[in-house]
Write a structure and sequence with these properties.
By secondary structure, this protein is of the alpha+beta class. Helices cover 40% and strands 24% of the residues. One of its GO terms (biological process) is GPI anchor biosynthetic process.
Length: 363
């Protein structure tokens, strides 16, 4: 019995060292290597395990509680990335504020609309965004078709009060009349724009927007997906087909590995854009990465995160499995912008993402 206890204590010590490595990688983000990506992705699981171990040793009144207690205390730099307390109701909007929407709209559910599968979802989503009182709207997985009146979203949004816009021109849909991917719409004039396509609808899009007497650069992004499908693994497990399970596990690992590689490359482009911007920067979009990842950490080292400053709760922004992740973000230049409020609208169920809205004051 004593040898078993000693073994698990040694295992706990090794786990503590692993925890310190994960913390270091997530905090300093000194490498975007795919191995580091896997380690950083494990941070929420690491915290949960330490919490369970802490509770176990607390119930046993064991002095060994100190190690997991220390691990939990050392995680404090990540608390603000994980949860935000809400103190009072948001203040009423002011005239000098700037309100920004970021929303992955799942192509406005156009494919289901065309096949007459719950077509009301498309219309409800469009009516909601048209009725919003925002100054700038940043869309991921945007969709526009000038041959179908209900899907001519650019025309509808222009009528709703957004006369200025710019869109990504991916190879799969290079024409604005039938565009897919990223879009920025504004009530204020756009005086310059730029874009980089990564793959299909993924990429970067910027717009220099003149807001009263100031000019800000809004960068809208959609990094490549890190979401993997576990259906094959589940099926292999239920059928006790271990050979197939091993094959499916290898597929999942390979997809994640390539995702980390792509994100590291995409981060280089994004960070260069931020560094070279002649104007204060506001970054919005679908990062397809949890708040402990490489891209998040690198952008956070240059800009402030709106959720961490004025968010509420956990801010989970993805509706599908895994549901408990925050991958939609807004980052801003704290020297030129002040965030007043940041909301994840979990009451809006039309897409596979929840919209996020930030309210800012120009300094």
């Amino acid at each position: 019995m004593k040898s078993t206890t000693s073994f698990f204590w040694r295992l706990h010590q090794v786990f503590f060292i692993y925890t310190l490595l994960v913390y270091g990688l997530a905090f300093f983000t000194f490498t975007g290597h795919w191995i580091a990506g896997f380690l950083m992705m494990s941070l929420p699981v690491v915290l949960l395990l330490h919490l369970l171990i802490f509770c176990y040793f607390a119930l046993r009144k064991s002095s060994k509680i100190a190690l997991s207690g220390a691990a939990l205390l050392l995680s404090f730099p990540f608390w603000s990335r994980t949860f935000q307390f809400s103190w009072g109701a948001p203040t009423a909007p002011e005239k000098q504020e700037l309100t920004v929407l970021s929303y992955n709209v799942m192509s406005f559910d156009a494919y289901n609309f065309i096949q007459n599968i719950h077509p009301e979802n498309n219309q409800a989503m469009l009516e909601w965004v048209k009725g919003l009182d925002t100054d700038i709207q940043c869309y991921q997985e945007f969709y526009n078709s000038d041959t179908r009146p209900h899907l001519n979203t650019l025309k509808q949004l222009k009528k709703a009060g957004y006369p200025y816009y710019t869109v990504l021109h991916p190879d799969i849909a290079p024409r604005e009349q039938h565009c897919m991917g990223l879009a920025i719409l504004s009530k204020y004039p756009i005086i310059d724009r730029g874009e980089v396509e990564f793959h299909d609808q993924n990429g970067l899009l910027f717009a220099d927007i003149v807001v009263r007497k100031d000019t800000i650069r809004v960068i809208n992004l959609h990094l490549r997906s890190m979401i993997v499908r576990f259906g094959g693994l589940k099926e292999a497990y239920l059928e006790k087909d271990y050979k197939q399970g091993k094959k499916e596990a290898k597929k999942v690992t390979q997809r994640l590995k390539m995702g980390f590689v792509h994100h590291s490359e995409e981060a280089d482009v994004l960070l260069e854009w931020i560094r070279k911007s002649p104007h204060p920067v506001l970054v919005c979009g679908d990062f397809n990465e949890i708040p402990y990842g490489y891209v998040y950490g690198e952008v956070r080292s240059m800009l402030a995160n709106a959720f961490e400053e004025k968010g509420h709760g956990f801010g989970f922004s993805y509706r599908n499995t895994p549901r408990f992740i925050r991958i939609d973000n807004q980052f801003f230049d704290k020297k030129k912008l002040e965030v007043i409020d940041f909301q994840t609208r979990r009451d809006i169920p039309y897409s596979d993402h929840y919209p996020v809205i930030g309210r800012y004051r120009l300094l």
